[in-house]
Amino acid sequence: MSLPEKLALAQTFGLVVLGIVASYIDTAWFEEVYTVEDGFVEWLTVLPLVVVIAFCLSRIIGRKEPGSVRFMTGTILIVLFSFFVAGEEISWGQRIFQVQSTGFFKENNSQQEMNLHNMVINGVKVNKVIFSQALTVGAAFYLLALPLIYRKSRNIKELIDGWAVPVPRLYQIISFLLLFGVIGLCPSGKRAELLEMGATTLFCLIVLCPFNPIQSDRELLNNPKQS
């Protein structure tokens, strides 16, 4: 693990622990200052996603030769995913640019904001079904099952590498599990803000420092020992 990785982990868990302690000592400060919308924690949630976007775009633009269709598609999908999550986190800049919500969002969004994760459809919260339950299942598969499959199956390994899918390293998996565990110690309903901040930082570390070498098909052919 490199020094930047260690510093990123130390900062992330330091801020999470600080938030948990603050939620017990001064709940009002924790909810109205520390985790307030467009506040310190929220921007630390968005920043790693911006880094991921910049890193992936530089991987595409800075190449001397174009990668394979699979490689380019996989990388672009990571960019789009990161852009979507970042946009949702700041409600697509609604508060920054002081844009008023339309009648549709006022009626169907639990916070009357212009985003999808707070939408309520027929009494069902989208955030709970998609952004909580489905995302939890997806994260569990990605963190626990994928690394094992990657190591066991050569065909799966070549498929994952070809699509430029970053495989998490052991310390990243342990960090995610630890994050999920300690968040449960926070009594405030805004503990999700701490989870999001920690999760995006760890996601950034996975993309920048994955277990598998992210190479195009052409590079894998030219460097068979690394495949």
TrEMBL record:
Alphabetized UniProt keyword annotations = Membrane, Transmembrane, Transmembrane helix
Membrane-traversing stretches: 39-57, 69-87, 129-150, 170-188, 194-211
Q: Report whether Transmembrane helix shows up as a keyword of the record.
A: yes
UniProt key word Transmembrane helix: yes
**This protein's name:** Uncharacterized protein
Its ancestry begins with: Bacteria, Pseudomonadati, Bacteroidota, Cytophagia, Cytophagales
